[in-house]
Amino acid sequence: MLSEKEKNEIAAELAHADSKSSVSVDALNIVQRHRGWVSDETLRDVANLLEMTSDELDAVATFYSFIFRRPVGRHVILVCDSISCWVMGYNPLLDLLKNRMNISFGQTTEDKRFTLLPISCLGACDRAPAMMVDDDLYGPVTPGMMDEVLGKYT
Amino acid sequence: MERPLTKNIHPGRQPLSLQEYEEAGGYQSVRKALGMSPRDVQNIVKASNLRGRGGAGFPTGVKWSFVPMGPQARRPKYLVVNADEMEPGTFKDRLLLEGDPHQIIEGVIASAYAIEAEQAFIFMRWAYKLATKRLETAIAEAYAHNYLGRNILGSGFNLELRIHGSAGRYICGEETALLNALEGKRATPRSKPPFPQVCGLYGRPTIVNNAETIANIPHIVNNGAEWFKGLSKSPDAGTKLYGVSGRVRKPGIWELPMGVTVRELLEEHAGGMQDGYRFRGVIPGGASTDFIVSDHLDVKMEFDAVMKAGSRLGTGTMIVLDDRTCPVGFVHNLEVFFARESCGWCTPCREGLPWIEKMLGAIESGEGEPGDIDILAQQCNLLGPGNTYCALAPGAVEPLQSAIKYFREDFERHIREKKCSYKKTI
């Protein structure tokens, strides 16, 4: 069941939309903001609201890298794996994160605090290597700043 | 030296509010444009010789001139700002979007007026959270001051502007895939023709312009075509945001006259190579451009000159390959990106890129075989222009084909010695 808040936010998008299905990505972003991810049940509810089939909406949802169709942790760490960061130390940064949290890409820590994922070029190439935690961008990331950065996200 | 695009931008500080922006001379081009006919605004931009800053370099005024005008045109007409910056190594639009959001909005209004569009979108990259927030604030201010909405400044011109927050996929930056994404569909490219200028979003006339292109419009409208041409050191008019990343002393982004040389960018602005690293080559305009090497240091960074050197200006943000970074590993990283981001619509791209990526990965890890290089070169032809709906695959093979040309000995040594000899030195 979608919450009233989610329904209202989707309705606000629909108010100036050209067709119901045109807000598919907006609606998925809205429910993900509230729930952290998009379950099969949520996907069905959104599809009903937009008068799409679940398959039609899932074809859109799974097309995008950042509509999460599986649960994620309370915070998502996105490590830029594109060229400038790769040149400037992506591999050591990734090793550091993996060792520290004992997880690989696509996994979540046991305490559900962090999920680790790769992301394509963050447009912070002059601050490489770069990463995002939730909505915040960091770079250049050094081993020394890791405690302070990760400590902000509980 | 004039820096019209970045004069209000001070990284680390909040962008200008609407009032501050007006005090700095902002929104004058809206008043000026609204006093002219849309065709006249188009003609100034055409005469200015502004070429699209998203990578392809198509003349903006010419693009606009294809839009059907007048009461017979199908409506609504749309203007879309492509702010889905995701080309690896490219970090220029972020600066403009975060640093001076009102400049983008002003550009949108003048551009939309020029093509008589009543609806505009900013197609925003998912990861650009700060830019989204700042633009939302600025758009609300612009509505409150009647720069957007109904009957703008009493002119009778109406314009709605909305941000579309995407969800992270490189192909959305492709003009026609972007239109499908805006319609809420899977973002696969459309075949052209028909071109979006005539039949775009919901089948209506639509212009898609890069964010940096749009940021130029207010200055061209205010100061005229001759002024704009005078900013440049080359036949390509205006200034350009140039970036350098990699093992240089001062990686960064600078607004400079169009046509500065590769050498000037690398040595004067980026401060030269870091100690202990030597220059081997650059991809001059993002991941989907061919390498150029030390023979090309005096090439001017403008569309035609870079083309003549065998590459493309692209986004104007170069990535440096140094002598301690493996060229095979470098290209492998690029192809991992392209294989992952291929939308899967066209067979050569969907099947070919993962194959290329795996083959490069094998060579890099010492499992390459004699003949692999020829197969890769053949793949570059198969994935070249003309075999796919869009430019993703042809772009993807540009750095590969030129790496084979300039760094073939590295590829051969990996295969001969069955290892990458760079790993020890990094």
Provide keyphrases for this structure:
heterodimer; A: alpha+beta; Arc Repressor Mutant, subunit A; 2 domains; 7 helices; 12% strand; B: 426 residues; alpha/beta; Rossmann fold; Ubiquitin-like (UB roll); de novo design (two linked rop proteins); four-stranded parallel β-sheet; four-stranded mixed β-sheet; 8 strands
Description:
The complex is a heterodimer of chains A (154) and B (426). With 154 residues, chain A is an alpha+beta fold. Chain A folds into two domains: 4-61, Orthogonal Bundle (Arc Repressor Mutant, subunit A), CATH 1.10.10; 75-151, Glutaredoxin (3-Layer(aba) Sandwich), CATH 3.40.30. In chain A, 43% of the residues lie in helices and 12% in strands. In chain A, helix 1 runs antiparallel to helix 2, helix 2 packs across helix 3 and helix 3 packs across helix 4 (54-61). Chain B is α/β, with parallel strands linked by helices and 426 residues long. Chain B folds into three domains: 18-230, NADH-ubiquinone oxidoreductase 51kDa subunit (Rossmann fold, 3-Layer(aba) Sandwich); 239-322, Ubiquitin-like (UB roll), CATH 3.10.20; 327-417, NADH-ubiquinone oxidoreductase 51kDa subunit, iron-sulphur binding domain (de novo design (two linked rop proteins), Up-down Bundle), CATH 1.20.1440.230. Helices cover 42% and strands 11% of the residues of chain B. Chain B has 17 helices and eight strands. In chain B, helix 3 crosses helix 6. The longest helix of chain B is centred in the last third of the chain and has 18 residues, at 347-364. Chain B starts with 17 loop residues before the first helix and ends in a 9-residue tail after the last helix. Classes of the chains: A alpha+beta (154), B alpha/beta (426). At the A-B interface, helix 2 and helix 5 of A face strand 3, strand 5, strand 8 and helix 13 of B.
